[in-house]
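Milestone M4 deliverable, item 7.
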Amino acid sequence: MAMMTSFFSVKSTGRKNLLQLIRLRWIAVAGQLLAIAVVYAGLHVNLPLTPMLAAIAFLILLNLLGHGLRRLPSVPAAEIFLFLLFDIAALTWQFYFSGGASNPFVWLYLLQIALGCVLLGVRAAWALVIVTSLCFAGLAVFFQPLALPPALSERWFSLYLLGSLVCFVLLAGLLAWFVSRVVYNLRDLDASVAALRQRAAEEDLIVRMGLLASGAAHELGTPLSSLSVILGDWKRVPALAADPDRAQEITEMQAEVQRCKSIVTGILLAAGEARGENPAVTSLNALVDRLAAYWRELHPQTELAYNNGIGADASIISDPVLEKVIFNVLDNAFDVSPAWVGFTAHQREDALVLQVTDAGPGFSPEMLENFGKPYFSSKGRPGGGLGLFLVVNVMRKLGGTAEAVNRPEGGACVILTLPLSMLSPEGGRK
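Output delivered:
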């Protein structure tokens, strides 16, 4: 009983292999109809058409049932095993009325064994070996002999060899086609599993980096608060307040400390959920214009070629994570092209498309191939590539995409595409 439970718990390769099995059964139906037509009408052999056609009708019903099952998310191994048993039963029924074990097509049993081995594993194959062997042995004893015309009776062995040749070609062709399709499905499944493992590893890295950033932000919060208090006290000292230069320096230091505190607050917010706890509602044009203006203020020495082609405005959520992604891409462009950076925004159907271009050397073929993977960077420093890695994964988390291309005139272009539904207040609550 434990053995049977273990056997039926074997996972099949999924709906794709069930579809191949259904296609094979349609080929079997067509082949059996053709064989019956040739033997009955061409060779004038008196076949019991009613029971043989009933078996074909049974296979057709079985395929219709299989078409319904293939819509399910997964197909249990026990059901595929049951389908193979039905196929064996239909074959045995046909052979019983067409000469039994002397029928040259009896070797089609081997196809069922091969299917069980590929789809269900070794235990299923051995179970089908036992079932088909019993059927073969039974057909050697219990069968209805064919009533051959006298002219065919004299050439019975030649007909048997011809039927064996047709059976061999058919069996070899079906096995080659089916096994190649199953191997393709298995490779596709392996590629999907590898992609899921890679994504899990990347998300684990994101979690660890988020924890590190959150911890660092918390630790920086205390000394920044102390500095803010100290600078406030200094500003009230009469000797320092009386010195215009020192007072100006203290004011600038307070502004920088406040900026650091804002950055730390943003890190804490981004290390939590993908959308802040108290997100602000703004408009699409206002968000992009504000980001461009703020980045230009932080990099006054850089020419920012900004173009807003969004057109019709829409109410959206001001997402701090998305803002940091855009700043990250702009900063990467600045690193390789400090004199000029291009930034354009437009809508494409129901998506926001942001393009950041630079006049740098562009991405190498290796970088383009591994774009968004950690530790692939052209900057040649430890930890390089993590910025673009976070960009790609955050965009994927938000339902969008990030891609990179080299411009024909030189430089590179990073394209961020995000569905507007993910930015809308309604979409943000889903």
